[in-house]
Amino acid sequence: MIFDNNNAAFRFLNSVHISEKEITKSHILPRAFCALSYRINSDTEIVSKGGSIKVKSGDITFFPANSSYSRISKKEELIAVHCEVFNDFTKEICAYAPKDSERFFELFRKIHDVYQKRAPGYLYEAGALVNMILMNICLERKNESKKHSRKFLTAVEYMNENFSNPQLTTEEIAAVCNVSEGYLRKIFRNEADISPKRYLNRLRVQRAVSLINCGFYSVAQVSEMVGFYDAKYFSTVYKKYAASSPSHYTENAVKY
Length: 256
Fold this sequence. Notes:
Blueprint: E1 9-20, E2 24-28, E3 34-48, E4 51-56, E5 60-63, E6 69-86, E7 94-96, H1 101-117, H2 122-144, H3 150-162, H4 170-176, H5 181-192, H6 196-214, H7 219-225, H8 231-241, H9 246-252
Antiparallel strand pairs: 1-6, 2-6, 3-4, 3-5, 3-6, 5-7
Helix pairs in contact: 1-2, 6-9, 7-8
């Protein structure tokens, strides 16, 4: 999800403040931009194709572009920041409960103030604050990762260092961790709710999005750079995690 992606980049568009004191039911149609919001005072359920999530005061939620959902609120006050996002393939609505919610509230409030005043350079200032929010989330989640077992962290570190090797196998990763393949799968299932192979493929696709968006490389080149022998198989795996095919990104990537 977006909160685990250190490569994502945001371009600020606008900000809105919403305050509803009565029970509200609304349906949001797909929009061309994504939304990052902070719940100031909330008791809300969000229902989408991906399921239902409940958000409360202090939560940060991310809504990908082109996602539709229903919002059922007993009370709702929030600040929403609308952006374009790059180098990310999150398709499901997700929520994060920060440890230091006051810090994040001040950042969202500052963004909204900057947008309301619209002083010269406000888009750059607001954009910098959006990235400050994501940076602080990354730092918090990095500290949370210390709660993972040493075996899990060793496996993840090895994947990050060797994902470009097409011969990297679950057996090799398990050997580095001094466990069996079966036990490694159990570790990932318990700590990441995903198999080691799926984790590795997701990591490879994250790196591929960044490379494709550069505009320098073909799909075949990117495929090889992130650890796939065959560009066709790479495209198949890519579509499982990203919102579209890699060729879509190459057609729309910035050319230098």
